[in-house]
Amino acid sequence: MLKDEKWRKMKAALSPAFTASKMREMVPLMIEISHNIVEYLKEHLTEDIDLDDLMSRYSNDVIASAAFGLQINSLKERDNIFFKAGKDVFNFSLFQSIRMIFSDHFPSLSKKLGFTVIPKSTSEFFRTLIASTVDYRIKNKVERRDMIQLLIQLSTEWTETELAAQLFVFFVAGFETTGNTLINCIHELALNPHIQDILYEELKAFKETKGNLVYENIGELKYLDCVLNETMRKWSAAIFVDRICTKPYVLPPPREGGKPCQLKPGEVIYNAVNSIHMDPKYYEEPEKFIPERFLDENKHKIKPFTFMPFGVGPRYCIGSRFALMEMKILLFRLMLNFKVLKCAKTLDPIKMSPVGFNMNIWGGSWVKFQARKA
Binding site residues, as ranges? Predict the structure, then answer.
């Protein structure tokens, strides 16, 4: 984890990759990749669909294009090395999970012991990919509006290892968390057809009056925004947010008769995001999927710091707009083309796997897509 001034400089350097102008340029490529998903589903309407596999392929292809300048169709090139490398990162065994926790708590000792959370073959693949791409573009004067190009512009200020690490973090953050949020959202829509109907009517009316989805009008889809927010509330993209204490602080007793907690500088604090999102003190009937919580007329009921899907404060996720846009574009295309239905494999109610560091549905998420009439 970068700290203090070095972190601030790196954030300032990478932030231009997520400005409005850059996001506007990303919309066409996301639409193209979402089109691949729609066409794939049209060819598999009679089948039960594994959302885990489908959404991870969508996330993979978006990141491959936006960050690395690679055009991949993982639905056709099913064993492409980029997708396999991404899956390897999140194929956690119990031993890998323990190593991750140990490395987070004892970074210096982990470094001395040679502990690595990411498989060496995977990290070497990304390091080589980034280095060779940068080298090719510089030698051949090739420019593309993606994060690799931003790294080239910053290459005089940061080491190749530092920049490659940040690009890898972007890949990891976008591959699993965005995909999981889409999985949980679509699964909830299958379980709640009345919510799906409301969402479809909004998208249909938008399509009839506005036509194509572009960066400038994507924010007008209010109910879609509510559906995604409610998904991220009920099924947090990250199960915790960790922060390092910078000065002594005393947390008050959590309950009557409890003891205060003394925090010391340097200690790592894990904030269980989902515990807050599912606390009945903050959300009435938190176990229910109710997108209307996030309508403009109800937002005043949400207390500050009780909804933080992308973290809060200075280390708020700088890729949040990118992730939201990526999800909205796909859901827009899916809902206009298909109804999402339960199938024999659909888990109802949803149960989460106790393994891993994300909200993964136990046994996977399976649904069926039914084509809407034109």
Answer: 317
